[in-house]
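Side project, low priority. Logging it here so it doesn't get lost.
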Amino acid sequence: MTEPHNAESVAAAMTVLDDFMSALNLQDEAGVNATLQFPHVRLASGKVSVWEKPGRYRLGDFLARAGDGWKE
């Protein structure tokens, strides 16, 4: 049995997601870092990446992964 959603928690999570997407679209690296928990762990394509502290997550790395077709 699943627990009911906590509206306050969901709203807080959506705020962080909105802040992340806004910072990403503005290419605001500090703003993106401000939305992440550190150490930040990414699991993708069978590889684990870890950014130990704020400022280590680089937008250039994201853009390299996203490719030329990425749009805001």
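Brief comment: The chain has a mean pLDDT of 87.
Revisit when time allows.
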